Amino acid sequence: MPIYTFINKNTKKQYDKEMSYEELIEYIKQKHIEQVFKIKITRYSDAGGIKDQFTDWCKSDKVEGKGTFDPYGKATKGFKKKK
User: Fold this and answer.
1) Is 50 within 8 Å of 75 (Cβ atoms)?
2) Residue 40 has pLDDT above 70, yes or no
3) What's the predicted TM-score (pTM) here?
4) For the chain, what are the domain ranges?
5) What is the pLDDT of residues 43-64, one digit of tens each?
6) What angle do CA 9, 42, 51 make, to 5 degrees?
7) Residue 8 DSSP code
8) What is the distance between the alpha carbons of residues 69 and 82, in angstroms, rounded to a whole number?
């Protein structure tokens, strides 16, 4: 069963609860309960392809050469550099 996060508006306490979707619909009808929505961010990977190389390049604080993004390996296939 899914785990949902709620906040009790009266006590300002946040908590998780496991329930079915049907139970959720009934549970959030209570005036003092509000569902908290969270975004789950997962890292995507294309096994060293252009997405991984670009993400790593953006995260790096080192500037090498002219500071341009230069893919290598399989990521160069189909990559066109803007002039």
Assistant:
1) yes
2) no
3) 0.48
4) 3-36, 43-75
5) 666 777 777 888 787 877 877 7
6) 145
7) E
8) 11
